Backbone:
């Protein structure tokens, strides 16, 4: 399995998704640009294919998430919203990343 949870696709925008108390071993959490107002709360990953949690949507919140042993980044927030006038903002609160190769928490 590549991802425990994947949000956002090629048709429409997924809004107000709340992923809570989820755990992944050797799989990670993923959100594509077609997502807005996603909340990751108390999600935990061990290992994974690349990043523990990667989110490319707009206005994302990470609360109390833990990643351990991600290949690249523990938590990677990289909003790739392609809509004029959209200002993406996110927040990362009480989250920790351990054992990541490149960086623990990255907001690009």
Residues:
């Amino acid at each position: 399995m590549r991802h425990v949870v994947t949000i956002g696709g090629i048709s429409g925008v997924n809004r107000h998704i709340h992923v809570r108390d989820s755990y992944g071993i050797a799989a990670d959490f993923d959100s594509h640009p077609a997502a807005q107002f996603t909340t990751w709360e108390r999600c935990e990953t061990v290992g994974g294919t690349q990043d523990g949690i990667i989110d490319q949507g707009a206005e994302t919140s990470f609360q109390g998430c833990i990643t351990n042993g991600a290949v690249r980044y523990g938590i990677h927030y990289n909003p790739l919203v392609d809509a004029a006038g959209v200002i993406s903002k996110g927040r990362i609160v009480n989250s920790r990343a351990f054992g990541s190769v490149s960086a623990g928490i990255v907001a690009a």
